[in-house]
């Protein structure tokens, strides 16, 4: 998945490096294409498509009393119509808005939470001296952004304070520049952590890589 140019990757890396000059927080930007497969969405859409076309076929058979469409009264015609409707419904989920609608908000939220937790462990965000790692997680398909802080972060920053950080990423996506959104969010993270007392120690070191992690899943 090519989301960023080389220049954008460097801008994000530099934004992390700059932010970490103001705080002991270790910021880990992480982007995935999607957090779940949502196979159930395909089956739901297929079922709805089959039911809708089947009902239309039955309505047509009931309303039309001529001879030309006599085949509509046969069971095989109804089965064929419902099969076609099911196939069309399943194919419709190839469109992201349709797939999101049939996946359901609750399912997507759960998948994103789980994927963010997995990323937190995979990238060893917990492995800092004062537990000051912070994951900035973006899941593109679900249109969801999560900020996951380690214990040292959560002790000083309320969850509600990340709302503006999330908004910066979202604004960047809406303006067709994820990189700009990430840079703005990272910069705000640095300011927020500094204000909340997650301060740089004299012997502070860069404990986690600064670059954005991109996963095509």
Structure in words:
Strand 2 and strand 3 (144-149) form a beta hairpin. Helix content is 54%, strand content 11%. Helix 1 (6-19) runs parallel beside helix 8 (178-195), helix 2 runs antiparallel to helix 3 (75-92) and helix 2 (39-63) packs across helix 4. The chain has two domains: 6-36 and 104-215, Diaminopimelate Epimerase, Chain A, domain 1 (Roll), CATH 3.10.310; 39-103. The protein is α/β, with parallel strands linked by helices and 217 residues long.
Quick summary:
This protein has 217 residues and is an alpha/beta fold. Helices cover 54% and strands 11% of the residues.
Descriptive labels:
elongated, 54% helix, 217 residues, alpha/beta, 4 strands, 11% strand, 4-stranded mixed sheet, 2 domains, Diaminopimelate Epimerase, Chain A, domain 1
């Amino acid at each position: 998945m090519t989301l960023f140019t080389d220049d954008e990757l460097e801008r994000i890396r530099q934004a992390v490096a700059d932010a970490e000059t103001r705080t002991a927080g270790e910021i880990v930007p992480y982007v995935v294409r999607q957090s779940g497969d949502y196979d159930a969405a395909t089956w739901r859409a297929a079922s709805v498509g089959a039911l809708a076309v089947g009902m239309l076929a039955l309505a047509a058979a009931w309303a039309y009393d001529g001879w030309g469409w006599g085949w509509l009264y046969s069971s095989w015609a109804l089965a064929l119509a419902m099969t076609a409707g099911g196939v069309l419904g399943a194919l419709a989920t190839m469109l992201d808005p349709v797939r999101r609608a049939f996946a359901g908000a609750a399912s997507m939220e759960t998948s994103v939470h789980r994927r963010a937790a997995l990323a937190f462990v995979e990238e060893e965000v917990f492995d800092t001296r004062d537990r000051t790692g912070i994951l900035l997680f973006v899941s593109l398909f679900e249109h969801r952004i999560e900020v996951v802080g380690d214990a040292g972060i959560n002790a000083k920053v309320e969850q509600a304070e990340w709302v503006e950080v999330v908004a910066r990423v979202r604004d960047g996506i809406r303006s067709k520049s994820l990189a700009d959104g990430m840079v703005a969010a990272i910069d705000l993270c640095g300011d927020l952590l500094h204000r909340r007392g997650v301060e740089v120690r004299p012997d502070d070191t860069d404990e986690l890589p600064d670059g954005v992690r991109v996963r095509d899943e």
